[in-house]
Amino acid sequence: MTMWWGIWFLCIPVYHDGYWAAIASPLFVMLLILKGSGVPMQEKQQKERWGKEPAFQAWRRNTNLLVPIPKFWSKTATPDDDKMKALARQNEHSDSNSDGQDAV
Question: Which of 33, 73, 78, 103 has a 20 to 30 Å separation from 20 between CA atoms?
Fold first, then answer.
């Protein structure tokens, strides 16, 4: 998607008359990725696979849609985030302690 917008932007100096209609290409690609075959299909698959895991819910809440970088500039941590991190640590700890035997 970024590539299509970059190409369109670089060609701005040569646009004249009806060439401005070329904006349809990056808009169409963006529409396909955000609403069609890209993001919605991937989100559905992620929810089916990891939807109930607290660590995934926290990651999804704190990560941007297209670029997986933290949303530190737009969202502050909430008490729920701390609970999710504690649950994730507890799950990791219990997974590492289980070697086929139940803890006593």
Answer: 33
What's the Rg (C-alpha) of the chain? 21
Q: If you write DSSP's letter for every residue of 30-79 in order, what string do you get?
A: HHHHHHSSSHHHHHHHHHHHHTT-HHHHHHHHHB-SSS--B-TTT----H
Can you give the pLDDT at residue 104? 45
Is pTM beyond 0.85? Reply is: no
The conformation of residue 102, written as its DSSP 8-state character, comes to -
55 within 8 A of 91, measured Cβ to Cβ: yes
Residue 88 near residue 58, CB atoms below 8 Å:
yes
pLDDT tens column, 40-96: 888 888 888 888 888 888 888 887 777 666 666 555 545 455 666 676 677 666 655
Token reading at 39: 């993001």
